[in-house]
Amino acid sequence: MDYQSSGVNIQAGNKAVDSIKAQVESTHNAEVLGGLGGFAAAYDISQLQYKEPVIVSCTDGVGTKLHIAIQENKLATVGIDLVAMSVNDLLCTGANPLFFLDYYACHQLEPEQVKEVVKGICEGCKQSALALVGGEMAEMGSMYKKNDFDLAGFACGIVEKSKLLKGSHINEGDYLYALPSAGFHSNGYSLIRNVLETYPEAKNKIGLEALLEPTRIYTTQCKKLLKQFPSIVAFAHITGGGLNENIQRLLNDGLKVDIDKKKIRVLECFRTLQKIGKIHEEEMWKVFNMGVGMVIISSEKLPDDRDYYPIGRIAKG
User: What is the pTM of this model?
Assistant: First the structure.
């Protein structure tokens, strides 16, 4: 017996690492110490000039959106999704992104497939101002079906303690503004796939491009907004649970979300999915972002801007 006959090809793993080395190193900055191949990554924060630095971390995946990408053999953007789902959560603390790690688990390592996925991860890291400092590839034929793989991502950021965004800073009367989403992002795909499998015409009517549109990354916008408007007290990343649940999780007892649904610029892909799948209106708002990827919460009214628009207030309740 040997390792390869048991389902693990070390040579393929080495080839995959070699194929992604240049892409990964293109995301590095002066704070990254060392290159690929070590047992752990080192990141130097000594020159970042924080008085009371707070380290922030989070993790997420892509979910069953991967099924569609694998089925269609279109893997170029799932890496962007992976980074986006973590870094958008990170931004809700007011943190500046530092570095990212990924975990890639599969039935069988295919170096070209790995290269395509990691290319997307690197693109997501560049959009997020993250350095991709490490990762892990695991070949587990007995755990995954043929051609299947899964992804997990881990983001780390830093914020001055005095500037850490907290739900306790939110009060009655605060203003809510929407930052538009790019589409479905990476939530609700178990329901989406159920519709696709039940109604064969659904894929063409919704469009493969819309189904695989990568999650929008809000690093540039959020950093700019925080610098421009000290009145911003919180961000809410709108994922599974929709607008109400993802804002409500930030609020103290005695406060509620008061949103005017008529103001939401609902994207066509959601209405097409709803119509084909005969999905109840309430279910749509509970599962999907409906066109709002991130919500800004501000203690003062913000000036009109094409990047965001008002949707409601924080109220008693």
Answer: 0.94
